[in-house]
């Protein structure tokens, strides 16, 4: 039996909030309603465990380290919650799905944090609404550079936050991030650093697996550029957040999704629908 799924044409669109612009938000703030419709809360025993990003109706991207030490726990204790802004009061826009399968990266290193990406296959598809949408993924490293991102953000609930938070960050080149006073050579080509040199904006452990998302003005879309992997404490100078660089895993993502769906374009009577694999 072959399984197919469909999404509305497009990704990386947010319909309740306009495109980013203006002055930088230093230090972060509470995210507006519907600002990050691809953000999910991966929950263990109904408590927030890690973040993630919706790639399409059935697949969520997160970090392997979120599950690496919990693989012995039955999947029925986990769930994925989309359309969520306030943990304590989910609201009418929330969609909850159980997990059918997890695909951790085979080369993940628990020591170095390299290859820290994972895919979650949902038990049933999300329904896309203004509050639940997929994010785009770069096709490869070259495509990532061509997109010329203007604004990048990290999002999540953090360690103690009840409401979804957002903070604008800058992408930091690997040569800087690998300086002795920064991460001293730890950053591999599969990683990307983001934050502010002052340490004013960063993700914390509670946001593990969540997206580093950047806006392309030429495409007028958001792309998931990184998956929150690790950092040294929280918001320290010269210790920005470290993310799995999504463009480096484009082939891995496509291979897994293609294994489940043997076609990328499906003809439908309603024009404007397609299988979103990127």
UniProtKB/TrEMBL annotation:
Per its record, what are the GO molecular function terms? serine-type endopeptidase activity
One Pfam family named in its UniProt record: Trypsin
> Is Lipid biosynthesis one of the keywords?
no
Protein name, as recorded: Acrosin
> What SMART domains does the record tag this protein with?
Tryp_SPc (SM00020)
> Which keywords appear in this protein's UniProt record, sorted alphabetically?
Disulfide bond, Hydrolase, Protease, Serine protease
According to UniProt, the reaction catalysed is: Preferential cleavage: Arg-|-Xaa, Lys-|-Xaa
Report the InterPro entries cross-referenced here: Peptidase_S1_PA, Peptidase_S1_PA_chymotrypsin, Peptidase_S1A, Trypsin_dom, TRYPSIN_HIS, TRYPSIN_SER
Q: Which GO terms describe its biological process?
A: proteolysis
Q: Where is the Peptidase S1 domain?
A: 25-258
């Amino acid at each position: 039996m072959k399984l197919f799924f469909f999404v509305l044409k497009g990704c990386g669109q947010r319909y309740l909030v306009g495109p980013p612009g203006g002055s930088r938000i230093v230090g972060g703030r509470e995210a507006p309603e519907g600002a990050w419709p691809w953000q999910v809360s991966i929950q263990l025993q109904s408590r927030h465990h890690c973040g993630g990003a919706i790639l399409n109706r059935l697949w969520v991207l997160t970090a392997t380290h979120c599950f690496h030490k919990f693989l012995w726990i039955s999947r029925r204790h986990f769930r994925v919650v989309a359309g969520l802004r306030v943990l304590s009061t989910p609201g009418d826009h929330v969609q909850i799905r159980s997990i059918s399968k997890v695909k951790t990266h085979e080369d993940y290193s628990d020591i170095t944090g390299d290859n820290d990406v994972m895919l979650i296959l949902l038990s049933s598809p999300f329904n896309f609404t203004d509050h639940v949408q997929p994010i785009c993924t770069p096709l490869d490293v070259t495509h990532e550079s061509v997109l010329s991102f203007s604004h990048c953000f990290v999002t999540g609930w953090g360690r103690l936050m009840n409401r979804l938070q957002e903070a604008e960050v800058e992408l930091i080149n690997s040569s800087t991030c690998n300086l002795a006073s920064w991460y001293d050579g730890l950053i591999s080509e599969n990683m990307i650093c983001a934050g502010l040199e002052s340490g004013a904006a960063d993700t914390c452990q509670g946001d593990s697996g969540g997206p580093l998302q950047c806006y392309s003005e030429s495409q007028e879309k958001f792309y998931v550029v990184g998956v929150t992997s690790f950092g040294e404490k929280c918001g320290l100078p010269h210790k920005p957040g470290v993310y799995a660089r999504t463009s480096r895993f484009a082939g891995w993502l496509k291979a897994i999704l293609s294994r489940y769906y043997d076609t990328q374009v499906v003809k439908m009577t309603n024009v404007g629908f397609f299988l979103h694999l990127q």
